[in-house]
Amino acid sequence: MEVQLGMPVLVKEDHCWGEEAAKILLAEFNLGCDVQHTEHVYRVYVTTFLGFGGNFARQRYEDLVLNETLNKNRLLGQRTGLSPDNPFLDPCLPVGLTDVVERNSQVLHFRGKGDWATCRTMLSPLLARSNTSQASLNGIYQSPIDFNNSEFYGFSEFFYCTEDVLRIGGRYHGPTFAKAAQDYCGMTWSVLAQRFKNGLFSSHADEHRLKYQCFKSAWMYEVLHEGFHFPYDYPNLQTAQLVYDREVQWTLGAILYKTRFLPLRDLRQGGVRQAHGSWFRLSFVYNHYLFFACTLVVLLAIVLYLLRIHRIHRRQTRASAPLDLLWIEQVVPMIGVQVGP
């Protein structure tokens, strides 16, 4: 089984969690040319996690820190984060990196602490997990995955997070990734900026990536292992931009989902047949003018063609008339010679 994190996933229904809940998240795809091509029929688990991408997750994290810090300041009479001299020490930013967050005229000053383990702990509530074992992010149902018989690919943020800065793209290994992310977070911002100037990172990396790589690596790690329940030593996950020389992104999954009814389907199903009949009637009502216009164009083309043939015939007739007269003039003298004295 080959799937992309963030794209539809082939699954089995879980009767313990709730058969109805599972059916809501299942869609049937027929990628064949005919409904009889059952070997191309797939039952796919489809859902989305809005607000759980790397950039939006950072905004949610900043909102959480700002609200908690300001509330704590009011209760304890502190001024943490209210000035650059007394910033909030953010474990999710590289050591020494300063940042400012402003929400509704409220400002909070950040300074990086570079503590990747603490960052992971602070991000855990943002996963919004439930107590149900068959739920993933935000309490959404996730069918069991046979990790012993599956192969996964990580695209988009997963690829950038492992490749652009850490330079460990390819086959994912949890402990290796965690060590590289921890080492990166522990570096001072001045050292990272100098390495960036020296071209030691990917050409696709920019300053925004360097600033939030510590946060995004911790977030991706938590989402993968605590949200989607991937084993920490899972070996069959690799980063990629192409699969069999084809670019695969979440947009491809969305297109497949939106066009799942385009291949031929069994029109004997009542709902489909009714929808098809309604579409046909509406098409006839609103397109009969177009039908008459096309008929008129065809008739006009036939008339013009016949007129053209008629003109060509007339020109040929006029051109052949002098030849006939000449033939007559040549024949008549010959007859006169034969009947003369």
TrEMBL record:
Q: Give me any GO biological process, just one.
A: CTP metabolic process
Q: Which residues cross the membrane?
A: 289-307
What highest taxon heads this organism's lineage?
Eukaryota
The record's GO CC annotations read: cytoplasmic vesicle membrane; Golgi apparatus; membrane
Looking up PANTHER family in the UniProt record yields:
ADENOSINE/GUANOSINE DIPHOSPHATASE (PTHR11782), ECTONUCLEOSIDE TRIPHOSPHATE DIPHOSPHOHYDROLASE 7 (PTHR11782:SF37)
Q: Which family does it belong to?
A: Belongs to the GDA1/CD39 NTPase family.
Task: Write down what this protein is called.
Answer: Ectonucleoside triphosphate diphosphohydrolase 7
Instruction: Identify the species of origin.
Output: Rattus norvegicus
